[in-house]
Amino acid sequence: MKIFLPYITLFFAAIQLSNAQSFPVEAIKISGDDDKKINIVILSEGYQASELDKFITDAKSYSNTIFNTSPFKEYANYFNVYAIKVPSNESGADHPGTATDLAEPAHPTQMVDTYFNSTFDAYGRHRLLFYEIDGNAANNTEIKITNVLADNFPMYDQGLILVNTPHYGGSGGQFPVTYNGHWGVYVAMHEMGHSLFNLLDEYYPGDHLAREGINMTQETDPTRVKWKNWYNVNKAGIHQYYSGATPKDWYKPNAGTCIMEVIDKPFCAVCKEGIVEKIHELTTPIDSYLPNTTTVDAENFPIGFELQLTTPNPNTLKSTWNLNALPYASDVDAVAITEADLLKDTNVLTAIVTDNTDLVMVDNHESVHAYVVTWTINYSTFGITEIESETHRFHISIYPNPSNNLVNLEFEGTHNAPLKIDIISMDGKQIKTINVSSLEPQQIDISHLNSGIYIANFYSGNSLISSKRLVKN
């Protein structure tokens, strides 16, 4: 995934083009090409020019801590980290001493000249360290941040503002803000949990921010709750939110054991799953593949086909190879096709890659991510005339699961052809076949089926992409 700037941002950027500023960009962590990785870009704030070496040291320390924290630790190979050295005229951040949530001054008041106008006491809350005091954008700082990123590293996926202050503070939003003191990196992970991975607070955020999400719901039925696959596993349950002593009609998977509630805790299992699912959505484990040309020597058998994969640590990727819709190999990165393997005319070789990580609970999990390379091999009595290749990504959802009556099927993919879904009973009988087009949800009535477990097989063309359990209550 790459960031495409919204129209209004491009409009302002065009106006300010003559004022575009270049700042030094330093690589902090490189895992691969920027267009194939999730790029986190850290911007300095409140560091004077003489302090930019300290900023790089701080940025490296933050990166090291983040990628030694699960689930970023397991998926470190999917991320790049860069730092943009933006100098400020003065050090620190504003602290006007105007907060109303505690007795000021909580630390010395000051007003300093910094590039992104960072300030404590935003919206009257002392620890809300933000780049506008009241959100009225008097300084157009959000546009300023966007322009710095667009001018210096336009392929960013997440911008993060690192403020040179020892005082605890931070904020979320499009561009999370954190401080460079001891807990700052954990504030950064909490806030990126919001901005990049769509996680919600597990302390009560207020009625205006409460909504259905990965780790927040009004559902109390353990068989229907979003995290039903984790229920009673790794301490996950259905815990009520409170605002002070007042209970709210909202529920979370944990009570005081997740960083989305308490900053000194790890990510809970439900939030880890949400992060990994987003990584699956934003990137592909297939870094490249061979052959990727259409010219092949007809006499050069066997012909090698190879995947170069970005692997988690430990490696939880599973690969399945099919030739002409029949199983050919599994859990290998390369195969060799002989002349005897091929049929006259058109042959299709597919490599399907999925991630079987334990961080995502597959049983009863509603989504499947599959990454596919397809080679079309034209073969005749004169040998191989050409090989064509293409890649596809599939995000398949089947929900609710289990279900009594209706099941929703939908998928997003880069392949224009519909998916075929065969529903098979446990004794091997084909119950139903459905075709689903991308972005067109379809409902299946299973009320007539006997209670029990069925298998849903997903096919792209003749290639089996994935199989998933379907439970009829």
Automatic annotation (TrEMBL):
UniProt key word Signal: yes
One Pfam assignment: Peptidase_M64
NCBIfam families attached to this UniProt entry: Por_Secre_tail
Family matches, as Gene3D superfamilies: Collagenase (Catalytic Domain)
InterPro entries for the chain: MetalloPept_cat_dom_sf, Peptidase_M64_IgA, Secre_tail
Protein name: T9SS type A sorting domain-containing protein
Segment forming the signal sequence: 1-20
GO function terms (MF aspect): metallopeptidase activity
Domain spans labelled Secretion system C-terminal sorting: 398-470
Keyword line: Signal
